[in-house]
Amino acid sequence: MKVIEQTISQLTLPTPFAVGDVHVYVLKGDILSIVDAGVKTRQAWEALTTQLKQIGYRPSDIEQIILTHHHPDHIGLTEQFPNAQYIAAEPSVNTWLTRDQEYLEHYRRFFEQYFVASGIPKIFYQALDKLEATMDFAGRGEVTTPLVEGDRLPGHPEWEVIETKGHAQSHLSFLRDRDHLLIGGDHLLEHISSNPIIEPPKIGKTIEDRPKPMIQYRKNLQKCVDINVNKVLPGHGKIVEKPQQLILSRLTKQEERANIVYEFLQQSVMLTPFEICKKLFPYQYKKQIDLTMSETFGQLDYLESLKQIIKRKKDGIIVYEANFISE
Ligand SMILES: [Zn+2]
């Protein structure tokens, strides 16, 4: 637990995930809010109640839950605050909190098609079940207060909502006018580079219409430089002071990784996304097919946006080749 200011405290809760501990923030304004809600485990709950007590509160004092994005390590304990009448978040978080069946089926179908189209062998398809298993750590509820970019946090009007899609399609951050302090969720982490994660397009759209999270992520990292973010209170790891340098190094590292992918493609006739993933992550792809494929597609989307590579479909499988005819 860390008291950051009189009106902001950082509580740190354990998670069973590789990312380690997650931070939640207690904000005192016109009402008492908590930003993010950890995972749904006994250990997280005990850590939360103990640390709340250290700053003089009980779970029943929390009046509003504000969520940065829909991932289970951020929405776990939403049901545990008996007097929290409001849940404020990007509107699509609701589909996760309510376990919207139509959306979850759409989600599953998208990933099945995406695995096939990427040339991923059948042996990896069990990874699809993992997507659903992690939802056991997510809480339930309903978004009462949909937030979009430019909104003010209800009860905390000095905080502006900033759209920061990339790591998640539902990702929002919150910027304080006075000193450009950002509550950043997983948008920028000091110790690991936050992964842009593949998600399906909206219901009714095809696999080709999926969002391109790396492109969004780069844009929204640059946005943090442009709006002069001064300090980031993150979802994991250390507080980031003056994040410009870290952002620039993240952008450069990504460009370097994209370049490696470009070189693979220059040396081959054509490759499927899965073949590229194996080359890029020879030691990790077997264990983490979902994350390594998201990362691979991130680089491919980026190179395609620069017209350095060309995407084609061959017998229902996506293949990429280097574009030697530069414009
Ligand atoms: Zn997280």
From TrEMBL:
InterPro entries: Metallo-B-lactamas, RibonucZ/Hydroxyglut_hydro, Sec-metab_biosynth-thioest. SMART domains: Lactamase_B. Residues 21-236 form the Metallo-beta-lactamase domain. It comes from the Bacteria. It holds the Pfam family Lactamase_B. This is Glyoxylase, beta-lactamase superfamily II.
